[in-house]
Structures are given as structure tokens and as C-alpha cells.
Amino acid sequence: MASPPPPLPPPEWAELPVDALLAVFERLGAAGVLMGAGVVCRSWLRVATREPRLWRRVDLTGCFDPTVDMEAMARAAANRADGRLEHFAADRFATDALLFYIAKRWEFLFSDGKKVLTSAP
């Protein structure tokens, strides 16, 4: 009787292609990336911090955790967007100061009745 084949080696998570990793991060959402997934290894951290397209839509609604500085998390997400933030949502921790922080970096322009978000100079 033949012996079973040897087990496959564990996957090399650090070597996932950027597009695959972005797909995973987009499913996790901003809170999931900021609270841990983005720091699994150096390559994941690099994608989580240097890929502005990941941060176009930041929805932190329902992500309140009293043990975490949620406002700092929201600011980090806004900064990582690097001027490409198109949508931001938060509820329990969204203060005027946080919204002002985000507004200082982007200005809303109205063109033909459509709201467009662009980087402020």
C-alpha cells in the first residue's frame, strides 16, 4: 500500500500578489485592515499603507470599540486615501473635529449638481 503524499507547505501569505491582497482587504473593510490585517507582515503593511485605492471608500459605521481610539483610526484611513477619498461614513465616534480634519484635506466641488471630492491644495 502506498503512503499518502506529504502535506503541502503552508501558503506564503507574504507573497500574495497586490491585486489579490487588495481584494481581501476590500472585503475586510477599513476597520479590519486598520485593526490587524494590515500588519500581518511587512508586505501586507506596505499594501495597507501605500495603496490609496484601498482607502477610496471608508465606512466605519458600527465599528465602535471603546478600547480603541476610533477617531485616530479614521484619521489614519483618511490620510492613507492620499487625496482619493470618495466616501467616508462613521457614526458613534464621528465628531465635528474629525469631520473638520477630513474636510481640511479635501474640498467638495459641485459641478452640474454632482458632488465631487478632490484634494485641497
From TrEMBL:
The protein, known as: F-box domain-containing protein
All residue ranges annotated as the F-box domain in the record: 10-58
InterPro entries on file: F-box-like_dom_sf (IPR036047), F-box_dom (IPR001810)
Annotated source species: Oryza meyeriana var. granulata
PANTHER family associated with the record: F-BOX DOMAIN CONTAINING PROTEIN, EXPRESSED, F-BOX_LRR-REPEAT PROTEIN 21-RELATED
